[in-house]
Write a structure and sequence with these properties.
It is a single chain. By secondary structure, the chain is an alpha/beta fold. It has nine helices and seven strands. It has a seven-stranded parallel sheet, with helices on both faces. α3 links the parallel β2 (48-51) and β3. The longest helix has 16 residues, at 29-44. The protein is globular, with a radius of gyration of 17 Å.
């Protein structure tokens, strides 16, 4: 019975996922479709989606598809973006914060895992902070890139260069997890093993 309970717990996890993605408009239609399919899959799985709170670009496509499929959406957005009328007003929760720092902190606290879709500098900045905290053992939440078309190929090459030259102490394939479909994303999250525990700095001191 205990084993059955563990299997059920794994099946029900994660309960919430933070999705990092772009809010720019005029992006490839295939990426919009990807965000929409992810939203539908997460809604079907009963997973709450936490994201940056915008109504534009992939963020808006993700939110609208999730809501249309009956899923729960939580947006976290800085006040100055609300003032620019970027915020999505149809979410279950829209948390308005003072700064980007507060936004990222709450996104992390409200999520069991992270998913990265295509995006720009903001997406990279959010992703690298989450990766940095994982490297330092500040959290053990999985982070997976949903990337069916090689959008993040150059990032993987950069991380490999960092590893080869001694700047990355954890193998690249344990930092950059990439999958091609939303279903594969869920499977990867449920089987994820932290790259570093209890923390890189503690290991180096040991």
């Amino acid at each position: 019975m205990a084993r059955q309970g563990t299997q059920q717990a794994q099946q029900d996890w994660p309960r919430s996922i933070c999705v990092f993605c772009g809010a720019s408009q005029g992006v490839p239609a295939a990426h919009v479709t990807l965000a929409q399919e992810l939203g539908r899959q997460l809604a079907a799985a009963g997973i709450t989606v936490v994201y940056g709170g915008a109504r534009r670009g992939l963020m808006g496509a993700l939110a609208d598809a999730t809501l249309q499929a009956g899923g729960r959406m939580v947006g976290i957005i800085p006040e100055y973006l609300v003032d620019l009328e970027v915020a999505h007003r149809g979410l279950h929760e829209l948390l308005v914060v003072d700064s980007m720092h507060e936004r990222k902190r709450l996104m992390t606290e409200r999520s069991d895992a992270f998913c990265v879709l295509p995006g720009g500098i903001g997406t990279l900045e959010e992703t690298f902070e989450a990766l940095t905290w994982a490297q330092l053992g500040l959290h053990a939440k999985p982070l997976v890139f949903l990337d069916p078309d090689g959008f993040w190929d150059k990032l993987e090459q950069l991380l490999q260069t960092m590893e080869n030259q001694g700047y990355l102490r954890v193998p690249t394939n344990r930092v950059l997890h990439r999958v091609a479909t939303p279903q594969a994303l869920l499977e990867a999250l449920r089987s994820f093993q932290p790259a570093v525990t209890p923390g890189l700095l503690q290991q180096q001191r040991g």
